[in-house]
Amino acid sequence: MRYELYYWPSIQGRGEFIRLALEDAGAEYVDVARRPRGVQAMMRLMASRALKTPPFAPPFLRAGELVIAQTALILHWLAPRLGLAPKSEAGRLWLHQQQLTISDWLVEVHDTHHPIGSGLYYEDQKSESLRRAADFRENRLRKFMDYFERLDRGRNITYVELSLFQMIEGLRYAFPQTMAALEPEYPGLIDLHERVAARPRLALYLRSKRRIAFNQQGIFRAYPELDA
Questions:
Q1: Domain limits of the chain?
Q2: Which residue among 4, 32, 75, 179 has the highest number of C-beta atoms inside a 10 angstrom radius?
Protein backbone atom coordinates (compact mmCIF):
# COMPACT_ATOMS: atom_id res chain seq x y z
CA MET A 1 0.00 0.00 0.00
CA ARG A 2 1.11 3.56 -0.71
CA TYR A 3 0.67 5.71 2.38
CA GLU A 4 0.13 9.45 2.58
CA LEU A 5 1.58 11.18 5.64
CA TYR A 6 0.31 14.65 6.48
CA TYR A 7 2.47 16.77 8.74
CA TRP A 8 4.16 20.17 8.81
CA PRO A 9 6.98 20.28 6.24
CA SER A 10 9.70 22.12 8.17
CA ILE A 11 9.82 20.33 11.54
CA GLN A 12 10.35 16.80 12.78
CA GLY A 13 7.77 17.06 15.56
CA ARG A 14 5.30 14.27 16.14
CA GLY A 15 5.33 13.31 12.49
CA GLU A 16 8.92 12.10 12.74
CA PHE A 17 7.91 9.11 14.84
CA ILE A 18 5.76 7.95 11.93
CA ARG A 19 8.42 8.77 9.34
CA LEU A 20 10.92 6.60 11.21
CA ALA A 21 8.61 3.59 11.06
CA LEU A 22 7.86 4.08 7.36
CA GLU A 23 11.53 4.59 6.50
CA ASP A 24 12.77 1.65 8.57
CA ALA A 25 10.29 -0.65 6.86
CA GLY A 26 11.05 0.65 3.38
CA ALA A 27 7.37 1.48 2.94
CA GLU A 28 6.13 3.47 -0.04
CA TYR A 29 4.80 6.78 1.23
CA VAL A 30 4.36 10.41 0.31
CA ASP A 31 5.14 13.21 2.77
CA VAL A 32 2.33 15.29 1.35
CA ALA A 33 2.95 18.71 2.90
CA ARG A 34 6.57 18.73 1.71
CA ARG A 35 5.39 18.75 -1.90
CA PRO A 36 4.43 21.90 -3.81
CA ARG A 37 1.10 23.19 -2.44
CA GLY A 38 1.16 20.28 -0.02
CA VAL A 39 0.27 22.33 3.05
CA GLN A 40 -2.81 23.64 1.25
CA ALA A 41 -3.78 20.07 0.38
CA MET A 42 -3.36 19.08 4.03
CA MET A 43 -5.51 21.95 5.27
CA ARG A 44 -8.22 21.24 2.69
CA LEU A 45 -8.42 17.62 3.75
CA MET A 46 -8.66 18.57 7.42
CA ALA A 47 -11.53 20.98 6.65
CA SER A 48 -13.37 18.62 4.30
CA ARG A 49 -16.95 17.99 5.37
CA ALA A 50 -16.91 14.81 3.31
CA LEU A 51 -14.36 13.23 5.67
CA LYS A 52 -16.15 11.00 8.18
CA THR A 53 -13.16 10.83 10.57
CA PRO A 54 -11.67 14.34 10.46
CA PRO A 55 -8.38 14.81 12.33
CA PHE A 56 -8.02 17.50 14.97
CA ALA A 57 -4.47 18.31 13.88
CA PRO A 58 -1.51 16.79 12.03
CA PRO A 59 0.00 14.28 11.92
CA PHE A 60 -2.49 12.03 10.23
CA LEU A 61 -2.12 9.16 7.80
CA ARG A 62 -4.19 8.26 4.78
CA ALA A 63 -4.24 4.63 3.74
CA GLY A 64 -6.77 3.91 1.05
CA GLU A 65 -10.08 5.13 2.44
CA LEU A 66 -8.81 5.25 6.02
CA VAL A 67 -7.71 8.52 7.62
CA ILE A 68 -6.08 8.02 11.03
CA ALA A 69 -4.84 10.75 13.36
CA GLN A 70 -2.80 10.88 16.59
CA THR A 71 0.77 9.58 16.48
CA ALA A 72 0.34 6.68 18.89
CA LEU A 73 -2.84 5.47 17.20
CA ILE A 74 -1.28 5.75 13.73
CA LEU A 75 1.66 3.62 14.87
CA HIS A 76 -0.63 1.12 16.61
CA TRP A 77 -2.44 0.56 13.31
CA LEU A 78 0.54 0.90 10.99
CA ALA A 79 3.29 -1.07 12.74
CA PRO A 80 1.81 -4.59 12.34
CA ARG A 81 1.58 -3.93 8.61
CA LEU A 82 5.24 -2.89 8.53
CA GLY A 83 6.55 -5.80 10.59
CA LEU A 84 7.30 -3.53 13.56
CA ALA A 85 4.86 -5.05 16.07
CA PRO A 86 4.06 -8.55 17.34
CA LYS A 87 1.11 -10.56 16.08
CA SER A 88 -0.54 -11.05 19.46
CA GLU A 89 -3.10 -8.55 20.71
CA ALA A 90 -1.48 -8.49 24.13
CA GLY A 91 1.89 -7.65 22.60
CA ARG A 92 0.44 -4.89 20.44
CA LEU A 93 -1.41 -3.37 23.39
CA TRP A 94 1.78 -3.40 25.46
CA LEU A 95 3.58 -1.45 22.74
CA HIS A 96 0.66 0.98 22.50
CA GLN A 97 0.84 1.57 26.25
CA GLN A 98 4.55 2.38 25.97
CA GLN A 99 3.96 4.70 23.01
CA LEU A 100 1.31 6.62 24.93
CA THR A 101 3.85 7.06 27.73
CA ILE A 102 6.32 8.41 25.16
CA SER A 103 3.59 10.82 24.05
CA ASP A 104 3.32 12.09 27.63
CA TRP A 105 7.11 12.45 27.77
CA LEU A 106 7.08 14.45 24.55
CA VAL A 107 4.51 16.88 25.98
CA GLU A 108 6.76 17.47 28.98
CA VAL A 109 9.69 18.23 26.66
CA HIS A 110 7.55 20.74 24.75
CA ASP A 111 6.42 22.39 27.97
CA THR A 112 9.99 23.18 29.01
CA HIS A 113 9.96 26.01 26.46
CA HIS A 114 6.21 26.67 26.24
CA PRO A 115 4.83 26.08 29.74
CA ILE A 116 2.16 28.79 29.60
CA GLY A 117 0.76 28.70 26.08
CA SER A 118 1.65 27.40 22.63
CA GLY A 119 0.42 30.63 21.08
CA LEU A 120 2.94 32.73 22.98
CA TYR A 121 6.55 33.27 21.99
CA TYR A 122 9.22 31.63 24.12
CA GLU A 123 10.45 35.09 25.11
CA ASP A 124 7.00 35.84 26.58
CA GLN A 125 7.26 32.94 29.04
CA LYS A 126 11.00 32.66 29.56
CA SER A 127 10.96 32.94 33.36
CA GLU A 128 8.33 30.19 33.60
CA SER A 129 10.33 28.10 31.11
CA LEU A 130 13.43 28.33 33.29
CA ARG A 131 11.50 26.92 36.26
CA ARG A 132 9.77 24.24 34.19
CA ALA A 133 13.00 23.14 32.52
CA ALA A 134 14.78 22.88 35.87
CA ASP A 135 12.09 20.55 37.19
CA PHE A 136 12.21 18.53 33.97
CA ARG A 137 16.00 18.12 34.14
CA GLU A 138 16.11 17.32 37.84
CA ASN A 139 12.99 15.19 38.25
CA ARG A 140 10.79 14.35 35.30
CA LEU A 141 13.47 13.31 32.81
CA ARG A 142 14.86 10.71 35.18
CA LYS A 143 11.40 9.25 35.83
CA PHE A 144 10.84 8.55 32.16
CA MET A 145 14.36 7.29 31.53
CA ASP A 146 14.27 5.07 34.63
CA TYR A 147 11.03 3.52 33.43
CA PHE A 148 12.21 2.70 29.91
CA GLU A 149 15.67 1.61 31.07
CA ARG A 150 14.28 -1.11 33.32
CA LEU A 151 11.99 -2.66 30.70
CA ASP A 152 13.17 -5.91 29.13
CA ARG A 153 13.48 -4.93 25.46
CA GLY A 154 15.01 -8.10 24.04
CA ARG A 155 16.70 -7.83 20.64
CA ASN A 156 13.65 -7.26 18.43
CA ILE A 157 13.12 -3.77 17.08
CA THR A 158 9.56 -2.46 17.13
CA TYR A 159 8.17 0.99 16.54
CA VAL A 160 8.61 1.75 20.25
CA GLU A 161 12.37 1.26 19.93
CA LEU A 162 12.35 3.63 16.96
CA SER A 163 10.47 6.18 19.06
CA LEU A 164 12.90 5.83 21.96
CA PHE A 165 15.74 6.44 19.51
CA GLN A 166 14.02 9.67 18.48
CA MET A 167 13.58 10.74 22.09
CA ILE A 168 17.29 10.29 22.79
CA GLU A 169 18.19 12.17 19.60
CA GLY A 170 15.91 15.05 20.49
CA LEU A 171 17.01 15.25 24.10
CA ARG A 172 20.66 15.33 23.04
CA TYR A 173 19.82 18.31 20.84
CA ALA A 174 17.75 20.20 23.43
CA PHE A 175 19.66 19.29 26.59
CA PRO A 176 23.21 18.31 25.58
CA GLN A 177 24.83 18.98 28.96
CA THR A 178 22.11 17.19 30.90
CA MET A 179 22.17 14.17 28.61
CA ALA A 180 25.97 13.94 28.67
CA ALA A 181 25.80 13.70 32.46
CA LEU A 182 22.87 11.25 32.54
CA GLU A 183 23.67 8.81 29.75
CA PRO A 184 26.22 6.70 31.66
CA GLU A 185 23.39 5.76 34.03
CA TYR A 186 21.27 4.39 31.17
CA PRO A 187 23.39 1.93 29.18
CA GLY A 188 20.35 0.03 27.92
CA LEU A 189 18.74 3.05 26.32
CA ILE A 190 22.03 4.23 24.80
CA ASP A 191 22.77 0.77 23.39
CA LEU A 192 19.26 0.73 21.93
CA HIS A 193 19.85 4.13 20.35
CA GLU A 194 23.03 2.87 18.68
CA ARG A 195 21.39 -0.32 17.41
CA VAL A 196 18.51 1.61 15.88
CA ALA A 197 20.84 4.17 14.27
CA ALA A 198 22.77 1.32 12.62
CA ARG A 199 19.75 -0.26 10.93
CA PRO A 200 20.51 -0.09 7.19
CA ARG A 201 17.40 1.68 5.90
CA LEU A 202 17.28 4.02 8.86
CA ALA A 203 20.96 4.88 8.58
CA LEU A 204 20.40 5.90 4.96
CA TYR A 205 17.38 7.99 5.95
CA LEU A 206 19.24 9.76 8.74
CA ARG A 207 21.94 10.85 6.27
CA SER A 208 19.45 11.90 3.61
CA LYS A 209 17.68 15.18 2.88
CA ARG A 210 14.42 13.54 3.84
CA ARG A 211 15.49 13.81 7.50
CA ILE A 212 14.56 17.33 8.60
CA ALA A 213 17.15 18.85 10.91
CA PHE A 214 16.22 19.77 14.47
CA ASN A 215 15.39 23.45 14.69
CA GLN A 216 13.87 26.13 16.91
CA GLN A 217 10.33 25.58 15.62
CA GLY A 218 10.03 21.94 16.63
CA ILE A 219 9.24 20.21 19.90
CA PHE A 220 12.92 19.75 20.76
CA ARG A 221 14.53 23.21 20.95
CA ALA A 222 18.04 24.17 21.97
CA TYR A 223 17.93 27.04 24.44
CA PRO A 224 21.23 26.89 26.38
CA GLU A 225 19.75 28.66 29.41
CA LEU A 226 17.23 25.80 29.80
CA ASP A 227 20.08 23.29 29.96
CA ALA A 228 21.99 25.12 32.71
A1: 3-82, 89-199
A2: 75
Give residue-wise pLDDT tens across range 66-109. 999 999 999 999 999 999 999 999 999 999 999 999 999 999 99
CATH class given for the domain over 3-82: alpha beta
Question: Are both 3-82 and 89-199 of the same fold?
Answer: no
> Which of 90, 88, 61, 98 has its CA nearest to residue 77?
61
Report if pTM > 0.70: yes
140-187 tens-digit pLDDT: 999 999 999 999 888 899 999 999 999 999 999 999 999 999 999 999
Answer whether 133's CB lies under 8 Å from 226's CB.
yes
Which residues are CB-neighbours of 53 under 8 A, at least 6 positions away? Answer: 66, 67, 68, 69
> φ, ψ for residue 29 (rounded to 5)?
-150, 160
Q: How confident is the model at residue 15 (pLDDT cuts 50, 70, 90)?
A: very high
**Which of 38, 36, 37 has the alpha carbon at shortest distance from 15?**
38
- Give CA–CA dist 97/87, Å, rounded: 16
